[in-house]
Amino acid sequence: MPADKKGGRRPPLGSGRASPYDRPPVFSKAFQAQFDTLLHWRRDVRRFLRTPLPEGLVEELLSQAHMSPSVGNSQPWRFVLVESEERRRAVRESFLRANAKALASYDGERAAAYARLKLAGLDDAPVHIAVFCDEATGQGFGLGRHTMPEMLAYSVVCAISTLWLAARTRGIGLGWVSILEPEVVTEALQVERGWRLIAYLCLGYPQEEHSDPELERAHWQSRGDVLDRILKR
């Protein structure tokens, strides 16, 4: 029996018990407008307050992320809450090495612009979550991934996107740190064999709020027109 929002088990259709899941919802124009606003305000946050998050909120957000679709219902996401100072330090050191290499790959004005960017919230974010894909999972029996095995990783990205939006509805910012050494971070966290690092996330209350991406404000790269990314065949 599927779970309800409170973590219990909701009754199946036709059971005679009232449930908000008995019929598909009709989303109002007001809700649609709010959802559009949510998408506009979903930002990749880099500057966090050190204020702790309320107890149980992280688990609640991860429960919402767990409702994401996955290939073959494999649910391959594995969330690792990184709380150890020693392991956080190893991740930060990995970032510093990777960031230095990235900086060295640019020159001139682009290198100067890169050096000015704020690319990680590792020092201040109260919550660190490493998100892995369990590539050895047998759940789902391989459905939908024989010809596209990368669908497991794509499913994990879907869960991260859901987590991002869910966090934003609670006023929580999320930053995805991708300038890392995946093998080093994986080793530092001592996870199961067959787990592949997909994302290292920082969560916390933002120091500042913006509806436009930081990279646009820093004149690194503006958002293109969606019409330039739609093809018809």
TrEMBL record:
Quote the Gene3D superfamilies the UniProt record gives.
Answer: NADH Oxidase (3.40.109.10)
InterPro entries, per the entry? BluB, Nitroreductase, Nitroreductase-like, Nitroreductase/BluB
EC class name: oxidoreductase
Q: What is its EC number?
A: 1.13.11.79
Which molecular function term from Gene Ontology is one that the record holds?
A: 5,6-dimethylbenzimidazole synthase activity
Residues covered by the Nitroreductase domain:
41-205
The record's Pfam families line, in alphabetical order, gives: Nitroreductase
Region (Disordered) residue ranges read 1-25
Sorted alphabetically, the keyword list is: Oxidoreductase
Under the heading NCBIfam families, the entry gives:
BluB
Question: What is the protein named?
Answer: 5,6-dimethylbenzimidazole synthase
Species name for this entry? Answer: Stappia albiluteola
Upper classification of the organism: Bacteria, Pseudomonadati, Pseudomonadota, Alphaproteobacteria, Hyphomicrobiales
